[in-house]
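stuck on this one:
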Amino acid sequence: MMRAPLSDLPLVIDQVSLEAGAARLLDRVSLTIAPGPPTLIIGPNGAGKTSLLRLCMGLVSPSAGRVTWGGRADHAPERRAMVFQRPVMLRRSAAANVGYALAQAGVPRRLRAACGAELLERVGLADLAGRPARRLSGGEQQRLALARALARKPEILLLDEPTASLDPAASRSIEEIILMAAQSGIKIVMASHDLGQVRRLAGDVIFMLRGTVHERGTASDFLETPSTPEAAAFLRGDLVI
């Protein structure tokens, strides 16, 4: 009898600090990430959003505290994927970039062409399958990065400001892909500067400041009745440091 794959959820961060040299990037952060609608991490530059995502992915180890995925620590990231703000494109076609991701995910060679075509269709790049990835526009590269991440069939998809440098039309297409992924059951955890994105995408919000989780709640509560002066100032567009 086939065993069900182990789950990476809930992702539990318990009293975690993260240091780089003399700098403390995260300071005694405790969080539980559970299945459900997208979680958006917001806050000013330098608040610790990217560090938190890298920790969730397992790319960095805590200086103190513990991270567990589905109750297990030091667990290989087979069921999670991450898209960076500026993804690196391989020097090959869009289709070959996805094919490489499928190979890394262990998809048999005979299935890769069909799976790759389906993924490119899903992100709206079917017509550009043969184009060199590095000749795609910024928005197209970000969609390709999402296709590569989805090739892993992740349970958790971590996104680091995926629309930060894109125009509104490109941003909308990325958001549509993210919502489709969320509706398919993938847990989205996404860093963003954009309060409009919180309104459009978030089920809940993590507001970070100076390496700490300053506030956590539903998106509607956070937007309408923030519980700290710093969150209220951030919502007004004031500089918060």
Observations:
- The mean pLDDT is 93.
- Helices lie at 49-57, 94-104, 109-122, 138-150, 168-183, 195-201, 219-224, 229-236.
- The chain has eight helices and nine strands.
- The CA atoms of residues 76 and 120 lie 26 Å apart.
